[in-house]
Amino acid sequence: MPENRKPQHRLDPRKPLVLDTRELGRRPGSMRPVQFPALAPDGLGVELIGVPAGAEIDLDLRLESVMEGVLVSGTATVPLTGECGRCLETVENELVVDLQELFAYEQSSTDRTADEDETGRMEGDLLDLEPALRDAVVLALPLTPLCRTDCAGLCAECGERLDDLPADHAHAAPDPRWAGLQAMLVQDPARPSTSTPESQE
Known about the structure:
This protein is α+β, with helices and mostly antiparallel strands. It has a domain at 18-140. Helices cover 13% and strands 31% of the residues. It is built from 4 helices and 9 strands, in the order E-E-E-E-E-E-E-H-E-E-H-H-H. It has helices at residues 109-113, 130-140, 179-185, 197-200; strands at 18-20, 31-39, 44-45, 49-51, 56-65, 69-83, 90-104, 120-121, 126-128. The strands form 2 sheets. Strands 2, 3, 4, 5, 6, 7 and 8 form a 7-stranded mixed sheet that branches. The chain has a two-stranded antiparallel ribbon with strand order 1-9. The longest helix is centred in the C-terminal third of the chain and has 11 residues, at 130-140. Mean pLDDT is 83; it is low at 1-7.
């Protein structure tokens, strides 16, 4: 057994992404389609977008018995929630990812020779789909999700969404050459007025 292999934790068959393959059998070539909803695990996402924990994932899979284990292939449809990378508005979407993973039988040649992160492992008749699902979803997520492909983002001056502002929205920048005069015209409220009755007539 490779030295870098880690001892497996016992799989809990009650977990939604742990599949029992007893009905499939171990005769190479046998196949069984499975379709079912499962609850999303925690942390299935990246910084700005991901699958809400506990959200429903729709799985459409095919389990196929091969010489070295069980080949799982199919698709997972997951709901996404996050925020736009330009304007910070809420983004809600749906993502369909392809899944394909070989889960090696215990003590098979693949189990004995493959590194820990190269392939999944069977535990008796059980397999855990979560690591394969996590890899597929996270790799497919956009690093900068957008509410719309043409989202204009936020105004650098006032922070409002540019898409909500009129087309001529602008902030007048004072001419720096007049900064001294402008400062003179702004009177400090705490400073007494220097005007005289004569000057007010």
